[in-house]
Specification:
alpha/beta; 7-stranded parallel β-sheet; 19 helices; 16 strands; binds zinc ion
Amino acid sequence: MPYYVTTPIYYVNGEPHLGHAYTTIAADVLARHMRQRGADVFFLTGTDEHGEPVAQAAEKLGITPRELGDKNAVRFKELAARLNATNDFFIRTTDPEHMAKVAEVVQRIHDNGHVYAGSYEGYYCPRCADFKTEAELEEGNRCPIHKIELTIEKEDNWFFRLSTFQEPLERLYAERPGFVAPQNRYNEALAFIKSGLRDLSLSRARLKWGVPVPWDESQVVYVWIDALLNYYTALSYARPGEDLTDMFWPATVHLIGKDILKFHAVIWPAMLMAAGIEVPEKVTIHGYLLLGEHKMSKSLGNVIEPFQVADIYGPDALRFYVLREVSFGADGEVSPEGFETRYTTELANEYGNLASRTLAMIERYRDGVVPSASAPDRLTADFEGLADVVKARIDEVELTAALDEIWRRIKRLNRYVQDEAPWQLAKDDAEADHLDQVLYTLAEGLRVVSVLLHPFMPGSAERLLEAIGREDLSLDAATLGAVEGGAKVGELGQLFPRVEAEAPAA
Ligand SMILES: [Zn+2]
């Protein structure tokens, strides 16, 4: 079963920030979860290095666009590694293989009769690298995203007949109600299509930094056309000596932020249709993480900077927090104190302490061997069907809901240990079987939640599973009672140690 997940390629005119980390984390959760299910996964991320904004940012710094790309692509690669992301490839749109493939596909769109020469006049946002319609403009002719005042620009260039794809796109949306998720974004994209599509300029005459238009080398391919094609081109050269296109195309899911909905849900499928290439299965849109008003936190200062959080608290804590705090798909507020609170109450106390207490009791009362027993019916019932529910949530890319299901079981195990008070049972020899049952159930419950948590917090889940002597990550065994006692437990240490760091100077 092939499964191909992508993040947008990140624009190298700035440094990586929490928003980039968010999408990469989400894509990695999908990739890791699907590998647990035995899928053949390909996970792609990378950098978008062409276009006017990069050329402008480089000019400001007094370096070439290539130098800026080289410098920032490294940072984005480091971010993926720091987050423990398991991307199979990191594409850069300056890769010669990508550029050659872009020229090839654009030529196909041209040869199929979807391109003509024309001139365009309209409000242009240099930071979006996009013309805006009158309807999109905010008061004072401002870009709705960048809030800067736009001026009217005129250009002679090559046009893509996007308008002729209105009907095919409407058909696509009618036939595939899951093509764009969540539903409100599907509605938004469909309304945009139904409002009437204007042809799209496919090239830029004023700019030199990009892929030359194959039949007119005086122009470069519009940066968005170039960038969108990365999802397709990467497969042709990501693995040396092999073309993975037949295996992984069409993509299973493109994860994106809502600001680039129009490009992915309208222009991208139209381009693919024009080139005679299958459209992706699904485009999933997440919201924004908003940094609200809040007081300075002790360890993080007043921002959530992904490298800093990962350095102080480890990547798992950041991965957990962003998916736990804000319901995936919606906008929501994050804050350094919110992070610290969840770190302490949920990660350190509810999960970390439960694990260390359980292991300590197995060590003390049962010489470090998980006793053989069976879980009580009420616990088995509370865990019943958990793996299937998590799978279903993840198939819908409802990552917060999936995490919620798992966390409810962690809370359940905490209640169980309080109710049963194994430290009391240990004082009474008549309760030996009962104590066996409690310790077995705790170890087994921790195993199940950790297998399911693994995509979210791979490092911590792996350490815990190793400590309880059960390292199998397959979801088939993620049911309470699937594994018998008898394992020798090991050292775990603190999964989420207390952090005493001082805030950096702001
Ligand atoms: Zn803009």
